[in-house]
Amino acid sequence: MTKIIFPALVALLSFCTVFADDFSFGAISTEEKEMQQCAYDSTANAVVLREYGRARFSFDDQSGAINLIFTHHVRLKIFNKEGVKQANIVIPLYKDGDRIEYVQELKAVTLNPQTNGTKVETWLETKNTYKEEYSKYVTLTKFTMPNIQNGSIIEYSYQIISPRLYNFRNWEFQTDIPKIYSEYEAIIPGTYNYNVVMRGPFKLSDQKSALVREGFRLPGWPIDCSQLTYIMKNVPAFIEEDYMTAASNFKSAIYFELADVLLRNGSKRSFTKEWKNVDRELMLDRSLGGQAKQKDEFEKVMPEITQHVQGDLNKAKAIYSFIKKQIKWNKYYGIFSELGVRKALDQHTGNIADINLALIAALAAGGLDAEVVILSTRENGIVNKLNPVISEFNYLIAKLTVAGESYFLDASDPLLPFGMLPLRCINDQGRVLPIKQSSYWVDLMPKEKHHVQYTLIGELLTDGTLKGKLVTSSYGYAAYLKRKEIVDYPSVEEYFEKKKSETPGMQILHEEISGLDTIERSLQERCEVSINLFDSLQNHQLFFNPFFMNKTNKNPFNLNERTYPVDIGMLQEESLNLDVKLPDGYELVSKPKDMNLALMDKGGQFVNRTRLENGHLFCNQLFRLNKMIYGSEEYLSLKEFFSRIIQLQKTDVVLQEKTI
């Protein structure tokens, strides 16, 4: 990440009195009409031909408010049916109480060039746009471009009027399709000073700065503006793959953060703060620190909660269980309480902060050492470590210390064991906010791994049927995720019915689950199974694949190059133990070769052993990923690791009938 700080008035700027021009709407060039594919990415299904954005301040004379006017103009071409989804346009608009963004001056057209050199224009009608309430904070304006065909060029532009000045308007050069040309202008009054941060792997093609005399005006106060232009050409598409955090962490983009504002009286209001100031503000805030101190709400019920437990750790587990039962999560994130601890308890519902601030207060009422931790979830992105930007944090958990051991707690999920965080929280670091001491960063590292064991003991019949007992044991995160999957069904029986339908070659004759309700322990699924491995004998030979339970069918890594890390979130382990009695009179002809693959620096391991002994076929397999994060430089070796596993698991066991 590169950090560039631009004062709003730069002494050595060239002078300019007008804003730069947007490109002409509808003026399609011959080259754009005839383009059959992206010159630098022949696999692209569509390409942005040209894109322009501009953000500037505007003073509303009627309301006296300062707004940000953001103009966005895009022209792109669709090459094939896979690119048609680019005709679905979504404009997110943010709202916070009376502070609401809205769209104006929307126009959009689809142009389909004809063989005779003419073009057919189909304009979007206003009635074909609609709004969707994505959340209480975001409304989506959506529309689909009309008359889309292979070779269509679509063009649209709009303005967003926004009261959100703190982050100005960020700009993403990278999206899921390549861009031939992307330009962004930020026109910033000299009274506003922003820190500008460039993220991503690609450099700007050009960067310009100029001075716009009296580019912004308040009543009786003309203000000069900085005109900052950023251009990137031939931008590759950003392809999202499995095992990654927020794409915004890695896309080439520009971010703005308000540092300070020069007021009319000559004083300066600073927005860039130090943690020591933010600590105090947050812990004095009625919706955060004020709620964490509400231990009085629990003092009367504490004897009842902890009456049958001994020791601080068991006391903490009892309190954790109590809060999970008392307050149901309403599916909203946040570091600030929406209802407050008292009302959340009364209404038995609340956002993440309501729940976990109640947990912290209850732990304090029990005489335990609990602290607030604020963090940014995986899909929200990594926060800026240089300066505290509270708007970047969207989640709050508890940090408990017992006998020198630390535990992270989130009471929002009834199935989440004590001391385990949901995957959404495992994202770099969180900020601990002690009541009386300075805040500090802490790694959000899971103690548990995702661990599954498969054990099958059975007998293979000559008709190709394998009958036996299958035990699937899930531990740690695997057990947690399996419980979440099972409880989504009305009953365990319906879960198994679904499992039967998903494994057409396997009949489940009898099944049972243990450990479903004891979330601190492993979960076991025991089944009597009948598996059809092959249909008939071929030349007195039996062919079957022993990897029918945990087979890896698809490599999760398919890029030629990945510019961002592989973030799995937790350690992974999976093992298979197969013991199959073979039909009498058969011998082993060939089998999957024994293998011991290892990633560099003990980053992972795959072991496979197959042997025939006393008429039994034994297959033992172990798969481990020993790192939670693999750097982009390790990507190709990880890709090859999975590729070799997949190749091995395609190999059959071949048994030959013995000749007399």
Automatic annotation (TrEMBL):
Signal peptide (from-to): 1-20
Residue ranges of every copy of the DUF3857 domain listed in the record: 70-198
Pfam families: DUF3857 (PF12969)
Record keyword Calcium present: no
The entry's keywords: Signal
Lineage: superkingdom: Bacteria
Gene3D superfamilies noted in UniProt: 2.60.120.1130, 2.60.40.3140, 3.10.620.30
Protein name per UniProt: DUF3857 domain-containing protein
Organism: Olivibacter ginsenosidimutans
Upper classification of the organism: Bacteria, Pseudomonadati, Bacteroidota, Sphingobacteriia, Sphingobacteriales
